[in-house]
Amino acid sequence: MSEFFTTLKGFEGKVLTPTTWGPDEVNTPMIRHWIQTMGDTNPIYLDDDAARATGRDGAVAPALMAQVWTMRTFTDKMANNDPSQVWTDLIATLDGAGFTSVVATDSDFEFFTELRTGDRVSLTEVIEDISEEKKTGLGTGHFVTTLKTYRNGNDETVATQRWRTLRFKPKGGEEAGSRGSEKPSAKDEKAGPIPGLRPRPALNADNAFWFEAAKEHRLVIQRCSNCGTLRHPTGPMCGQCRSLDWDTVDASGRGIVYSFVVNHHPRIPGFEYPLVVATIELEEGTRLIANMTGIAPGDVEIGMPVELDWIDADPDLTLPAFRPAVREDS
Ligand SMILES: [Zn+2]
User: How far from chain centre, in Å, is Cα 264?
Assistant: First the structure.
């Protein structure tokens, strides 16, 4: 075993989250909210008789809520969001050996004991396993598996959750490290987008109109009908006056690059790399995230004027993009 791998193996069994009890006991109001949000109509979660008909002693909490009971409250999370020192050390060890990229590979939930109202739930998290070096399609790396164990007040295991990530050295590291004015090589341009469809947006009642307009090559901005404030991303309520009434205005399509990143890895089907992901500030004042067209990634600059373009990704998906503005004075 190499010295490096011995060091890695030394992390196995170390504790990431010491046993921590959830802030509230298992309770009906949270179960009711959860099943309504998830659309789960199984009656055994609220109706004791329905649960008894299935051989249980009474209503039980949905198994998948195990995680819910131990979630830190919002203010706790804001006050202390630092990763554990063990995790920080492990990642530093991997980074130091060149395993700088990460991709989540799988999550495996197992359920052992059902929860009922009044139960308390605790969470403990450890590093369970670090694999030997593996060759994968993304590059060479180590699989790191963490294990969360949820227990009830009788110290019975309620559920376990294994979460596996691959920490790897990206293939073609020289390209991943490219910076600045370097333009995409001829090879990149010839390569074109990675085959496959771009991810679908999660459409809902609050955003579908925006994507529908995009299909017609119209970039719209949501506007409060009461106070006139423009907003993006789309949403049901005005953040200024809380009105639920809204309409839209068509954007001029002019703006500037407010900020941007050039993404090299990981490479997702449907996109072309290196991929410019920019925050565009429209002249109307709202900002949106978009890709850029008609420019080498190394030539993008913060503050540069841009104008609207469109990416007709596939028959079901059209997205606004931005290209350098054609100067009117030259
Ligand atoms: Zn308003």
Answer: 17
pTM of the model: 0.55
Question: For 242-285, what is each residue's pLDDT tens digit?
Answer: 999 999 999 999 999 999 999 998 888 888 899 999 999 999 99
Q: What is the dihedral angle through the alpha carbons of 71, 77, 83, 86, rounded to the nearest 10 degrees? A: -60
Q: Residues with Cβ < 8 Å from 266, sequence gap 6 or more?
A: 101, 103, 138
230 C-alpha to ligand 1 centroid (Å): 8
Instruction: Give kind and range of the element (H or E) at residue 141.
Output: strand 139-152
**69 SS3 class:** helix
Report which DSSP code applies to 65.
Answer: G
The pLDDT assigned to 277 comes to 96
Question: How many angstroms separate the alpha carbon of residue 248 from the centre of ligand 1?
Answer: 13
Tell me the CA–centroid distance for residue 204 and ligand 1, in Å: 21
Every domain of the chain with CATH number 3.10.129.10 lies at: 3-26+61-170
Residue 79 has pLDDT above 80, yes or no: no
pLDDT in tens, 154-211: 999 999 999 999 999 977 543 333 333 333 343 444 457 777 888 888 888 899 999 9
Residue 152 in contact with residue 113, Cβ under 8 Å? Answer: yes
Q: What is the residue type of 3? A: E
Class of domain 3-26+61-170: alpha beta
Distance 246 CA to ligand 1 centre (A): 8
Question: Residue 162 to residues 14, 19, 104: CA-CA distances in angstroms?
Answer: 15, 16, 11
The whole-angstrom separation of Cα 49 and Cα 53 is 6
Q: DSSP states of 307-329 as a string?
A: EEEEEEEETTEEEEEEEEPPPTT
pLDDT at 330 over 50: no
The residue ranking higher by pLDDT, 121 or 84, is 121
* CATH fit for domain 174-199+252-330, picks 3.40.50.150, 2.40.50.840, 2.40.30.170, 2.60.40.10: 2.40.50.840
What pLDDT, on a 0 to 100 scale, did the predictor assign at position 77?
A: 64
Residue tagged 């990763």 (tokens): 83
